[in-house]
Amino acid sequence: MTNPEARSLNLSNCVAIVLFEALRQTGFGGTHSTGPTPAG
Length: 40
Known about the structure:
Elements (H helix, E strand, L loop, with lengths): L3 H23 L14
């Protein structure tokens, strides 16, 4: 029942989340927010 395409999508999504978290914690773009930015 495992779909190779879904597995690849999940893997790439996981990598993107980890990469984003690493960049966010290092303060990329000069933003040093400690939480999610409000929409709008």
